[in-house]
Amino acid sequence: MTKKDTIYRFLNPKGNELPVQTYPLAPRLDTLDGKTIHLSITGEPDITIPLEKKLRERYPSVNWTMKKSYMPNPLQMTEEEIKTTDAVILGVCW
Predict the structure, then answer these.
(1) Each residue's pLDDT tens digit, 40-51
(2) CATH 1.10.405 corresponds to the domain 32-94
(3) Measured between alpha carbons, how far is 30 from 90 in angstroms, rounded to an integer?
C-alpha cells in the first residue's frame, strides 16, 4: 500500500451526546419587597452566619426563611413552604 492509498480512521472527539430535556427559566420577581425567600444551605456548621446577617441587613423588607443541612444534599421543602415561598436560593458553603 502506498502512502497515497493509506486510509486513516478517526473517532469523533466530541462523543455522542444524549438528548437532554430543557426547562425555561422561572419568571423573575419584579421586586423583593415583602417577598418570602427561602435560603437552603448545605455545608459546614456556622459558616452561614455572616451570609444570613448580610442578607437580613441588605434586604430588611424580605421575609427570610432558612433551612440548613450539614450533609451534601439540601433538605427538601415541605408542601407548605413551597406554597408560601416566592423564591429559593440554594447554596453550598464549605
Answers:
(1) 888 777 778 888
(2) no
(3) 20
